[in-house]
Every structure is written in structure tokens, then in C-alpha cells.
Specification:
With 125 residues, the protein is mainly α. The protein has 5 helices and no strands.
């Protein structure tokens, strides 16, 4: 039953995060540069940093609240926040090679994934 509560917390938080991301995308901005995505990613990074900081300084904080906020809201808002947190944690643990390779591989492989996904879609369509 504990896992089910966790799933529900993540699902609820994910819905809130996704709705927040969509709300930001509705801001009428007339420019080619993807500023709203950049703002969303920065806000997500600030938010996940705050949540982790609060959970660390308040060890009694409910695991379900952390799941709702960190995995749910931040995950629904932007997975870039999770990527950023994990990269910082690797660097803070002095795992510089792992941190650097994680950052480079994440960006390069995800960009290649976009190209591959588009190619696959063209073949299937």
C-alpha cells in the first residue's frame, strides 16, 4: 500500500507540474529564442534545489511530500531539473568524470535521440 501512495503522490505532483509548464507556455512572447523553455528549466532547477534543501534540513519531512514535490511536480514541470540535480550531486561528490560525462552524454544523446525519433517517424508515417 505504501508504494501505491507514492505512485499517487507522483501522479498528482506530475499533473500539477505539467499544468504549470503548460501555463508558462501560454505567456505571449514574440521571439524565436525558446525563452519560455529556458525560464521553465531554470525555475525547475531552483524548485528542485529548494525541495532537496528543505528535505535535507528537515529530515522528518514526509517521504510522500518529497515524492509529490520532487519527483511529481518537478518531474512534470521539467525533467531538466532532475538532470541538473544529479549532475550537481556527482560534481559535489567529486565524481568529475562521471558528472562531466553524464552532462555531455545527456545533451548529445538526447539531441541525437530527437533526430533518430524524427527519422523513425518519417519511415513509419
Amino acid at each position: 500500500m505504501e508504494y501505491m501512495t507514492g505512485f499517487l503522490c507522483v501522479a498528482l505532483g506530475g499533473a500539477i507540474g505539467a499544468a504549470g509548464r503548460y501555463a508558462i507556455s501560454l505567456i505571449p512572447v514574440k521571439m524565436e529564442y525558446p525563452i519560455l523553455t529556458l525560464v521553465t528549466n531554470i525555475l525547475g532547477a531552483i524548485l528542485i534545489g529548494f525541495i532537496v534543501g528543505m528535505a535535507t534540513s528537515h529530515p522528518g519531512m514526509s517521504k510522500n511530500v518529497v515524492l509529490l514535490l520532487k519527483t511529481g511536480v518537478c518531474g512534470g514541470f521539467t525533467t531538466f531539473s532532475t538532470f541538473s540535480l544529479e549532475a550537481v550531486q556527482l560534481l559535489e561528490n567529486k565524481s568529475y568524470v562521471a558528472g562531466g560525462s553524464y552532462m555531455v552524454l545527456s545533451v548529445v544523446c538526447c539531441l541525437l535521440g530527437i533526430f533518430a525519433g524524427r527519422r523513425i517517424a518519417m519511415v513509419v508515417a
